[in-house]
Amino acid sequence: MASVLILYTGGTIGMAQNPVTGTLAPVRFDQILDEVPELNKLGYRIKSVTFNPPIDSSNITPEIWIKIASTIQKNYSQYDGFVILHGTDTMAYTASALSYMFENLDKPIILTGSQLPIGILRTDGKENLITAVEIAAAQRNGQACVPEVCIYFDFKLFRGNRAVKRDSENFSAFVSENYPELATAGVDIKYNLDMIHYPETKGILKVQTGFNENVVIVKMFPGMGRNIFESILEIPGLKGVILETYGSGNVPTVRWLLNSIRKAIRRNVIIVNVSQCQGGSVMMGQYETSVELLTAGVVSGM
Predict the structure, then answer these.
(1) Residue 9 annotated among the catalytic residues of the structure
(2) Which of 9, 12, 50, 245 is an active site residue?
(3) pLDDT at residue 71 greater than cutoff 90
């Protein structure tokens, strides 16, 4: 009998509406099989863990990522796969972080949630949850079909560190512009086997829990002030900068901006160049406006 552990961290899928204010807030989700009795028909051994208190995903922190990873690590030998119920706003952040925290992962970790609470008639939560559980339990030739950290949403399975939330109203909330879906769910679940990463050797699961929070994201925009940019790069203790640039990795060629970047790199601040565009990639050196970033030692985020 396949076995799946469900971690409910919070999010819209387990929210209830306050009858007075009309606002949505997370509630405990202990009786998940009562909420979604269809799960019993899968014939799996399903258990759930509820975070107390449930967390609105806007409040996610690295400490909660560590709690999620530690919970999976403690139960890793007892289950074939894991499903994390999570709010959509920061689901892609959590999926990306977890994908780098687990070393020698050979079991599925599937994040999912919903745009409408599971208690609402038109909810998308039931299909998302049921199929996520199926994918977490699926095996082929004695091996997990998708031994990766993934996001499943609206009939599509994405690699966790390639997905972003693009829509706050439609059920198709997530997209992966630069990497194909790992699976699509229709009448059957079709796996894109050539795009799934399978471990070449089986090692002992390791969980990396060291986070350095001295990192900032700086998004370039026309007219960015010199004082603002320089003050960010001169933050005491700064270790890393994600520089969101134009197009294929371009920035203005004004001297103060480039000098500020060079000074930061000389202080051993790692600066990674990523594009503001959802699709495409960074190609430093293709245009004059990115050549000096390359020579300064800025890292291409591809």
Answers:
(1) no
(2) 12
(3) yes
